[in-house]
Structures are given as C-alpha cells and as structure tokens.
Write a structure and sequence with these properties.
Elements: E1 3-7, E2 14-20, H1 30-41, H2 49-52, E3 57-61, E4 63-64, E5 67-68, E6 73-78, H3 101-107, H4 119-126, H5 132-138, H6 143-158, E7 163-171, E8 174-175, H7 185-193, H8 202-217, E9 224-231, H9 247-256, E10 261-266, H10 277-280, E11 284-286, E12 297-299, E13 307-308, E14 311-312, E15 317-323, E16 334-336, E17 343-345, H11 356-379, H12 384-396
Antiparallel strand pairs: 1-2, 2-6, 3-6, 4-5, 7-8, 7-9, 9-15, 10-15, 11-12, 13-14, 16-17
Length: 399
Amino acid sequence: MLTYLTSGESHGSQLTAIIDGFPAGFHVDIDKINYQLARRQKGYGRGGRMKIERDKVEVVSGLRYGYTLGSPITFIIHNKDWKNWTKIMPLVGAMSDDLNLKEKSLAYGKTKPRPGHADLSGAIKYNHQDMRNVLERASARETAAKVAIGALARQLLEHFQIRFASHVIRIGRVALSTKYKIKDFSAFVKKAENSPVRCINKSTEQKMIEAIKTAKKKRDSLGGIAEIIIRGVPVGLGSYAQSFRRLDGLLAGALMSIPSVKGVEIGLGFKSASLMGSQVHDEIYYKKGSDLPAKGFYRTSNNAGGIEGGITNGEDIVLKIAAKPISTLNKPLKTVDIKTKKPAQAIVERADNCVVPALGVIGEAVTALVLADVFLEKFGSDNMAEIESNYKAFLKSPF
C-alpha cells in the first residue's frame, strides 16, 4: 500500500514529504520531479511568493545510487522565504523583540479571520488565539510537497506507458467552448504548457488573461475549472467489492483535498443527470487482436470518464476539478475580531489572485498518487522486476 505524509509551514524552514510502500529497484529522475515543481509555480495570476521560491527537491532517504530501496522515501523542499521569517516563526523559544514594522504586522494581530479560509474554524478547533498558527499549515504552499511525491508516483506510471495531461477550461466566467478530441497527446500537452493560463485555445486564453487583470484591478480573486486526462491506464484498477476501494471515490476524495477545490466531475459528470440513459452510457465494441488497454474492447464515446463500477475500463480517465476564488483578498471582506468580537475587516496576506493555471498540475500529482496505489495493488510487489513480470503477464493473458 502506498502511503504518504507531508509536513511543514508555509513560512517555515522547509516542507517535508515521506512516501512509503514504493517498490525497490526503480530509478528516480530528480530533474523530472523538479520540472513538475516548476510547472506548479507558473501561470498568469500567481503572486509574489512565486518570484521568491525556486522549488527543488532534496532526497534524504530511501534511495541509493538513484534507485529506490523499498524503504520510506523522504523529500525536502527548502523555503527560501524562511530567511525573512526567522524572527516571526521560531520553532523553539519566544518570538524576537527586535522586529521592524513590517515584521510586527506579520507577527501580531492575526485575530480577524478571512471568510472562506480555515482561519476561524481552525482557531476554534485547536484553541489558537493567534491565527498565524492556523494559516501557516492551511496554506496551499503544502501542495508543493504533494506535487513532489506525486511526480515520483507519476514516473512509476509513465514507466508503464501511462500518460498525463491537464488544461484549464474555465477562469471566472470565461470558459473554453471549443470542442476538441485528443488525437496527438504530446501536441495537446505542449499546447497547454505553452499557454500562460494553460488553455489550449488562443482566443479563450486572452479572455482569461483579461479576466484575471480585471479581478486584480478590483483587488479581487477568481476561481475556475481544470480538466485532467490520463491515457493508457489498463482495465481493472480499483474495485466494486468494497465502497472504499472504488476508484472514482478514491480520486474524488483526493482531488477534493486540494485547497480551494469545491467540486469534482468524472467524465460527463453533472450533465449526465439531465440526459436519458441511452445518451449517457458508452456502447461497447470489440476488435480482435487489438492492443487496446481493455483487451480489445473499446468505446466510441467516453461519458463514463474511464471508470465504471469503481474500476478502470481502459478508456482515458477524464476528471474536472472546480476551484473557488482564493479567500485572501486585497480588498478584505467583513469579519469579526476573535478577541474583541467586534466587526472588522479580514486580515490580508500576500497571495495570488488566480491559482487556476496551477490547479491541473496539482491535480495531476494527486491523481498519480491514487493511481500508483491501485496499480501496485493490482500488479504490485516489493520490487520492479516482479511488477513488470506481473504486468506483462496481465497484458498477454487471454479474456
């Protein structure tokens, strides 16, 4: 079973991620992990923090000569901004008395919770009078650690010809209306990566950029929707035997854990509720001798999004994730001071005004972690040699 933990505060010294259950004998490409971290930081609408950090992973356990040992793998991502917060965020001892005006504003007065953030509920849950103790861990900065271990899981899946893509289909009221079908997967990925908002249509891209500019001028924020596509996933991952093993449930839960995500669709999603069954369900065909992922069975539509009965059916896995506008606004909303209980304006922290271009990248990482786990459940062992043998045997087995 593949399990992981992350730790670290947004303005602490580092983020740490530990992943356990990863098979031995896999060669890890650190450059590919760093590439995914760089992708997460890009995108029009990102804030000043992205200009400070240049996220790179440091491996401190679980590898030797670049190969996995089968023991827990530990990644560290150092926070460059930590040097500016050492007086404010000491791990031990009291806070420094030698603070300048800016440091004092960051260190004190975090008693006015932001609507939409974890500030108030977190403060009540953990009995914190200083909401700095909440917002540091509730911050989406944690997703950098998740992207790092997700990039490792992705490498394992890519070894078995499973490929990932994502793109933005909505920012605010601007939506991609162009119908598309992915014929050349690599070209599709390249088109999305070359866009500052990760949109595959140039006209829609410009409208999205203008929407972000308008929101920024208004000191406001924007949400949106990203779509994730995974191609080459073999049939049979997941299970209907127990509800907690259903792959659609596992994916939805993991994707909903991404900060700001408020909705997940698989395939046709909510639209399927308004259609007749004959318009929704993907008819099945067969081509003898085919090397298709579902052993010769295929569909001409993919409304199911690659999952039926909690199990992959060999078609592309297609997921959509909807993120609300981020809850830190430069024009703060009304709130209540938790100490005085009097009306106030919410605290303002340095933040992006649109994170949607990074949403798909984070979604890819989270999806890779879930798929790697069910892949190892189906074909897994403690080492790569046996996994490869099991996988090849499955592909060759008749049905």
